[in-house]
Amino acid sequence: MSLDKTYRLVPGTTVFDAEQSAKGYHLNQFCMSLMTAENRAAYLADERGYLDAWPLREEQKQALLDRDLNAAMREGGNIYFLAKWGATLGFSFQQMAGSMTGMTEQEYRDMMVGGGRPVEGNRIDHAVLDAAYADRKAPAEHATITGAVFTSHVPAIGAAMDHDKTDEPYWKPLFEGYDLSKDWEKENLPDVVFLVYNDHASSFDLSLIPTFVLGTGAAYPTADEGYGPRPVPGIEGDPDLAAHIAHSLIRDDFDLTLANEMTVDHGLTVPLSLMFGDVEKWPCKVIPFHVNVVQYPVPSGARCFALGQALRKAIESYDRPLKVQVWGTGGMSHQLQGSRAGLINREWDNAFLDRLVEDPAGLARVPHLEYVEEAGSEGIELVMWLIARGALSDVDGSGRVEVKHRFYHVPASNTAVGHLILENHPRAEQPAEGVN
Q: How far is Cα 314 from Cα 4, in angstroms, rounded to an integer?
């Protein structure tokens, strides 16, 4: 079923949802620019010229020039952002609110003194509501998850590719493990990759530590991690699908941070390079999904697994026939600090890969302490793989997964490398071989 957005039927009300946010992004960012005295003076000195410096649609500019708040709201404006614009012009909040109702400031103030606007007569018309629910139906076409990719995202792998070292004896066995993967991607190219990774103090420093970040923007440049940005393309996002996923996941009680702007580091670009090779442009759109696995507490495996299940629901309710892959990245065993630096646990890593295929629900219950003790302090990144695993149809018995490729290698710099490709086959499909 498509998502429930009946809040749009409340009369005289614009609910600021992800679609409105995307529509009004630059308009609201313009308003934010007015939080400095210098910018306010520049705007008041030349309103049109200041507006023209922003990538605003003409309708947005005209709404502001006409002092038409209702038009600005229709164009994606949010009242808390627009309040900064109003304050710049010397408007009180009551003056702004009154202008949207057809009242003068004094008439609006008198109404509020009298107890405010009554809710009677300002609720949804039941006939309209009933008709809206009667018209709701499952979409004729919808997005599907075609598979999941799991891979380590070691920065040294990216450096080896960027400096033409892939055929050197140290690196060649690792890159040969991804030859089949590149062929598989060419034959199974998705429209969108939902890529789960962790930022490595590139976009998020200690001033802001969100647990889950969903990229809802149109594009994301490659981060400079201290050596200059990798010579790879930035990514093209899918704001429409991302907004849909945000709506669905938050309604399912997953508290997300939504990012319209951020840079993406090796945690995201290395997996893309491994699967797609050296390209001038990535062959599909990418929705970045950052998970905090740097500062404790980090999300549990169980929470990540449940998020993956909710993600599948979100993607499959999107009413466009997109092919989507979900990638889980990070790990495997490695420790980058302390006297245990260089820890590798082959036995534990391979048992993890076994359970990821055969017993993902049980694997999701593994406590953080086991990851840290057995796989190293940075091995905790493996909880991110459980998001991708939870998004596959065998988890609830409605389909099967098929193992297309499995690879394990030690070392890549300080890290064990694990890699797995699982094709997703809903029950309607009949794959030749599969794993329940």
A: 12
Are residues 331 and 375 in contact, defined by beta-carbon separation less than 8 angstroms? yes
Statement: residue 188 has pLDDT above 90: yes
If you average pLDDT over residues 246-265, what whole number do you get? 96
Query: What is residue 136's predicted lDDT score, i.e. its pLDDT?
Result: 64
pLDDT digits (tens, 9 = 90+) for 376-411: 999 999 999 999 999 999 999 999 999 999 999 999
The three-class DSSP label of residue 420 is strand
Percent residues over pLDDT 70 in the chain: 95
Distance between CA atoms of 404 and 418, rounded to whole angstroms?
14
In whole angstroms, how far apart are CA 96 and each of 29, 92, 103, 276?
Answer: 19, 6, 10, 52
d(CA 105, CA 85): 17
Region of residue 406 (phi > 0: left; psi between -120 and 50: alpha; otherwise: beta): beta
Strand partners, 229: 224
Rounded CA-CA distance 101/108 in Å is 8
Count of alpha carbons within 13 Å of 210, Cβ hemisphere only?
Answer: 17
The tokens describing 412, both together, are 């890549």
CA distances from 157 to 25, 106, 175, 408 (A): 36, 67, 9, 14
- CB-based contact 264:272 (threshold 8 Å): no
* Predicted pLDDT of residue 133: 65
Are 309 and 394 in contact, with CB atoms under 8 Å apart?
no
Mean pLDDT (whole number) for 166-170: 98
Predicted pLDDT of residue 124: 85
Q: How many residues does the chain have?
A: 436
End-to-end alpha carbon distance in the chain: 26
What mean pLDDT is predicted for residues 239-248? 96
Contact indicator for 318, 403 with CB cutoff of 8 Å:
no
Q: Which domains does the chain have, with CATH numbers?
A: 6-135 (1.10.700.10), 144-426 (3.40.830.10)
Assess contact for 77 and 21: CB atoms under 8 A: no
Instruction: Indicate which residues carry an active-site annotation.
Output: 266, 334
131/286: higher pLDDT: 286
Residue 435 has pLDDT above 60, yes or no: no
CA gap 321, 139 in Å, rounded: 10
CA dihedral 55, 56, 62, 64 (to 10 degrees): -100
